[in-house]
């Protein structure tokens, strides 16, 4: 299988600014009690017919009420679109941005390629994955039309080799009766408290560089723990890095490569067997 990739120059420049390091330890934080609707909205895989993942062109007609469009922009940035045309940009930054102004922008504090101090003022909701008070966890839980966004704080390594507590967030998007998670710049495996907060996941965006974030063994542990039917790689800097991850995943997961950067998913079209779907970056 041939992998076709298109990485932006800005992504490569951003990669050179990162310093590889080992994963840092993490600590328990007091989390709010899970909401009843969280368990109802994220019930896991439900398939009523032979499942499939449907590739989509970047510009499509209105989504059906049970569909979500995911477009890989590059690096760790995706554009997620809901049936009621709520647009979300993940890890919104100054280097890689979607071609449309999102309604919601999420960010992570790990590196400048994952956040910006100057977001487009037209964005109604800018959700930073870290708190203004250093070392404190931030909490987001907002609903915009048919989209709910919440976060689970995690730690990151700082530039001195130590740990910045709660400097990253895993953002969870509840749309069309599905839960979609973006792991951000994840630096450590997850404890049971964090797994419980995340809940059941249908699709997950996973950093797969294997060094700047979590190593491959640790990331596979996280993926297996989440049990998502659909895994979408991100945060890779070369074909070699991506293929290294795919070769490990091939032992237990199906692998598919899309010719387009977008995919439309719904609860009934998720794969019956867990699948890694590679979307080419724009």
Structure description:
This protein has 282 residues and is an alpha/beta fold. The protein is 15% helix and 29% strand. The chain has a single domain (9-17, 47-278), classed as Metallo-beta-lactamase, Chain A (4-Layer Sandwich), CATH 3.60.15.10. The chain has five helices and 15 strands. The strands form two sheets. An eight-stranded mixed beta sheet has the order 7-8-9-10-11-12-15-13. Strands 1-14-2-3-4-5-6 form a seven-stranded mixed beta sheet, with no helix packed on it. The radius of gyration is 17 Å and the shape is globular. It holds the Pfam family Lactamase_B_3.
Considering the chains and any ligands shown, give keywords for the structure.
282 residues, alpha/beta, Metallo-beta-lactamase, Chain A, seven-stranded mixed sheet, 15% helix, disordered N terminus
User: What is the typical, i.e. mean, pLDDT?
Assistant: 82
Largest sheet: 8 strands, mixed
Rg over alpha carbons? 17 Å
How is the CATH topology named? Answer: Metallo-beta-lactamase, Chain A
Looking at the overall shape, the CATH architecture is: 4-Layer Sandwich
Secondary structure tally, helices: 5
Percent of residues in beta strands: 25-35%
Structural class: alpha/beta
**How many β strands by DSSP?**
15
Number of domains: 1
Look at the structure and name the CATH superfamily.
Answer: Ribonuclease Z/Hydroxyacylglutathione hydrolase-like
N-end to C-end Cα span: 20 Å
Low-confidence stretches: 1-58
Spatial order of the strands in the main sheet? Answer: 7-8-9-10-11-12-15-13
User: What is the CATH class designation?
Assistant: Alpha Beta
Shape: globular
Percentage of residues assigned to helices = 10-25%
The ordered H/E elements are: HHEEEEEEEEEEHEHEHEEE
InterPro entries: RibonucZ/Hydroxyglut_hydro (IPR036866)
């Amino acid at each position: 299988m041939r992998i076709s990739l298109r990485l932006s120059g800005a992504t490569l420049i951003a990669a050179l600014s990162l310093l590889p390091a080992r994963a840092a330890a993490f600590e328990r934080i007091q989390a709010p009690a899970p909401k009843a609707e969280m368990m109802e909205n994220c019930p896991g895989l439900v398939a009523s017919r032979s499942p499939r993942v449907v590739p989509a062109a970047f510009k499509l007609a209105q989504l059906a009420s049970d569909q979500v469009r995911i477009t890989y922009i590059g690096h760790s940035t995706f554009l997620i679109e809901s049936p009621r045309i709520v647009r979300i940009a993940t890890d919104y930054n100054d280097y890689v941005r979607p071609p449309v102004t999102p309604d919601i922008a999420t960010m992570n504090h790990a590196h400048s390629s994952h956040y910006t101090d100057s977001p487009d003022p037209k964005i109604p909701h800018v959700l930073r994955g870290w708190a203004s008070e250093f070392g404190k966890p931030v909490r987001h839980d907002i609903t915009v039309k048919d989209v709910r966004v919440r976060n689970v704080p995690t730690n990151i390594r700082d530039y001195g080799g130590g740990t910045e507590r709660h400097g990253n967030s895993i953002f969870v998007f509840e749309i069309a009766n599905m839960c979609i998670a973006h792991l951000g710049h994840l630096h450590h495996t997850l404890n049971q408290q964090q797994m419980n907060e995340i809940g059941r996941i249908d699709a997950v965006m996973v950093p797969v560089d294997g060094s700047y974030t979590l190593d491959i063994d640790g990331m596979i542990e996280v993926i297996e723990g989440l049990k998502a039917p659909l895994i979408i790689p991100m945060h890779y800097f070369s074909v070699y890095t991506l293929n290294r991850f795919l070769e490990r995943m091939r032992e237990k997961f199906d692998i598919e490569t899309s010719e387009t950067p977008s995919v439309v998913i719904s609860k009934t079209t998720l794969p019956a067997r867990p699948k890694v779907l590679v979307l080419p970056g724009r």
